[in-house]
Amino acid sequence: MSLLNVDNLAVTTAAPTTALLGPINFKLAAGEKLGIIGESGSGKSLTALSIMGLLPDGVRASGSVTVDGHEVVGARDAHIRTLRGKTMAMVFQEPMSALDPLMRVGKQLAHAGVRDCAAALKEVDLDAEIASRFPHQLSGGQRQRVLVAMAMAGRPDLLICDEPTTALDATTQDGVLRVIERVTKAHGTALIFITHDLGVIRRMCPTVLVMHQGAVVESGPTEQVLAQPEHAYTRRLIAASRPPELALAPAAEGEALVSLRGVGKVHGEHAALDGIDLRVSQGERLGIVGGSGSGKTSLLKLIAGLERPTRGEVDVRGRVQMVFQDPQGSLNPRLKVWKSIAEAMPGNPSRADRRSRAAAALEEVGLPADSLDRFPHEFSGGQRQRISIARALCGEPDILLADEAVSALDMSVRAQVLELLAGVIDKRGLTLLFVTHDLAVVRHLCDSVAVLDRGRLLEHGPTEQVWSSPSSDYTRRLIAAAEM
Fold it and tell me: Which of 63, 251, 396, 411 could bond 9 through an S-S bridge, CB–CB 3.0 to 4.6 Å?
């Protein structure tokens, strides 16, 4: 008997009835590992929530989902609650949203059923003193490991991981994946791993389902599906997973638009940056890479003028605009998008001119002008990031700063946004500083790269030179993690 049986599962909205998912069918035996891949909106997370009995209000499931013989579809929540934690558990994508920001980690572990916090933290490679901290005092990788510890507290038979490493840098991602591999093997836990990263799915799961528009379009052994895909959508997904070849000419050595000399930045007792010397020439496309907490975002904030250095000098010549990681958080949800775009325009243009220029900016990033009067929540994640780029371009920048601008996007949308960025940078002759944890993206988009670790600049030079002959062990580890 299988541990998990999904039989003709379908999810629809209540009224009017609209199909969101299915019908889909699959089984999972005790201890097996299954990957689910697909773009945003393909139904991956909806499948996971259906199994957990956590569907939001306004949607309903039909068909059958049994976990260890217990029916989930149509069951009372009181019954399903007895299954969560001991029979099945889930690790969510965004740990900062899943953890209580006002409760210390140790107390949250205790609420999850952990009796020995030190042992639970050790199992996920965290020190016992983490228990005394609040979630905001942890890095992204540490928070995600805490969630794994909480999910495994009841020794569940089934663990569902929904995009647990999406926004993590390569080395941190590797650490979290090692933890998940180890704890599921140690306890014989079956695993469903949801991601849009094909490299991760190849590593974690011997079997994979490919989902598209709420349906399973292909399934089978992971290596076979990825090496010899039968469905056209799977082939497109695999092609999109490779960073696009962006035919950008190398920047010529020119005037320095950004210069940092002996820059340090201290937050409380923590040195975010320490003795940074960096020169960025006009037209250069600089990739800034490093692990969580390495100082990448702190560096961008100094260049953008959002913060001041504790010591040293930061000299920036020209207009600066920034594209943030989370467009949902950086766009005002109460403003129509044309007004958000117009905020960045220099001078004091008339309302008609602002709308006209906003429409032109939207067209430049591939969105129709009739998008002007819609609100941010009416767009997909990739579309919102295009709106953020349009807003930055309306500021008529000389220097464009991008902070993890594609890290939360699925593969095909990421490729589209990268091509868009490359096109506008080339067309406008912009200087780019691109922060990312994805070295493969840097290799295709940036002609130079700077590697940061714990606030120090380890190396800076042409991308291919650093990639082929890294001078530091840390850079070698980053490259190795990226090539897994």
Answer: 63
In the prediction, which pLDDT does 23 show? 92
> Do residues 36 and 209 lie in contact, with contact meaning Cβ atoms separated by under 8 Å?
yes
Alpha-carbon distance of 239 to 216, in angstroms, equals 19
pLDDT, tens digit (0-9, with 9 covering 90-100), for 55-81? 888 888 999 999 999 999 989 989 999
Q: Is 248 helix (H, G, I), strand (E, B) or coil?
A: coil
- Cα–Cα distance for residue pair 11/17, rounded to 1 Å: 10
Give the ranges where 60-101 is alpha helix by DSSP (H). Answer: 77-81, 95-98
Cβ atoms of 417 and 387 closer than 8 Å = no
Q: In this structure, what token pair is assigned to residue 178?
A: 């090692």
Q: Report residue 280 as tokens.
A: 């960025």
**Dihedral sign for Cα atoms in the order 457, 462, 465, 467:** positive
Phi first, then psi: what are they for 320, rounded to 5°? -120, 135
What is the longest distance spanned by two Cα atoms in the chain?
Answer: 70
Distance between CA atoms of residues 79 and 70, nearest Å:
9
Contact 400, 389 (CB under 8 A): no
Question: Can you give the pTM of this predicted structure?
Answer: 0.74
3-class DSSP assignment, residue 433? strand
3 state SS of 363: helix
**Partners of 289 in beta bridges:** 451
Dihedral Cα 55, 58, 59, 65, nearest 10 deg: 40
Q: How far is CA 45 from the centre of its chain?
A: 15
